[in-house]
């Protein structure tokens, strides 16, 4: 039975403690409310969690899960972390992750993993403050062994958590942080997407590999460059490739489509202001304009070239993704535009549909 003990308590009377057994359904309900419809399917009644409580109300939680690595080594996984929207911005997430990390160490874990959305700066900065680093799968394998890597991929949302980054903390050994260089991240983004889309050839041998990859690469590179040009501000931006959810980009090409690994331009500091939402949305709009013009030219001007037939086909798919501000498509640009201005978003949607239908 999960004990009910207080791990910490702050001046605002927010209690951080271990979840009681009879609170599992409440935690699940709060988690499903915090995430979109598809993401909420991953939230099941937890066996163990750290909760934030004010009065008698649970306002946040981190769900804990124990996995096994090489030679019985225990690996803790933060299956999900969330805070009631009305209570965000008060440092509650940081307290939850601190207490959850402490709990895993007390349970005898050697490593702890977590999956966090690239734009969820509140969560990943809280993790970094508690000793976590954004890592590659190679680093996870190096530290936890092959069995540890397989256990994380099989028993956590990592393989399906599209648009999220993998974070790792180790109790006794240093963790090698994933490279933050935008140049290296962009190179990895292009290379991995080109490799993964090749699975389309397994069911369609008539595809011309060279033109197919050249067209896809041109679309991805052009879109990310135009997005960066559109981010006109004094902020410093870094490109980040997310490494969770790789099974989706790997399997979708088998259906004859393409689904890129997600990469985004991330600012060093987010601002909860209308101006900043326009900055983020402006970059996404310019990336959309590049795709729109490329598809339009391929459809109505460059009509006799095999290369442009691939530009049109793949570009049309990416444009459709740009219209969907819901998970798992939200990180591809639509959510930034939707939050910026719904009229602009609606104009984008109408223009895209006219181009694809007419």
What's the alpha carbon Rg, rounded to whole Å?
Answer: 22 Å
In terms of per-residue confidence, which ranges show pLDDT below 50 for 5 or more consecutive residues?
1-11
Order of helices and strands: EEHEEEHEHEHEHHEHEHHHH
Approximate shape? globular
Beta fraction of the residues? 15-25%
Overall mean pLDDT score? 89
- Tell me about the largest β-sheet: 8 strands, mixed
State the end-to-end distance: 62 Å
Number of strands: 10
Computed structural class: alpha+beta
Number of helices: 11
Question: Which strands sit side by side, in order, in the main sheet?
Answer: 1-2-3-4-5-6-8-7
What percent of the residues sit in helical stretches (DSSP H or I)? 40-55%
SSE layout and pairings?
Blueprint lengths: L5 E4 L5 E4 L5 H11 L13 E7 L2 E12 L5 E10 L8 H15 L4 E7 L3 H9 L3 E2 L2 H19 L8 E7 L11 H16 L11 H22 L6 E5 L5 H5 L11 E5 L6 H27 L5 H16 L12 H7 L1 H16 L1
Parallel strand pairs: 5-6
Antiparallel strand pairs: 1-2, 2-3, 3-4, 4-5, 6-8, 7-8, 9-10
Helix pairs in contact: 2-3, 5-6, 6-8, 6-9, 8-9, 8-10, 10-11
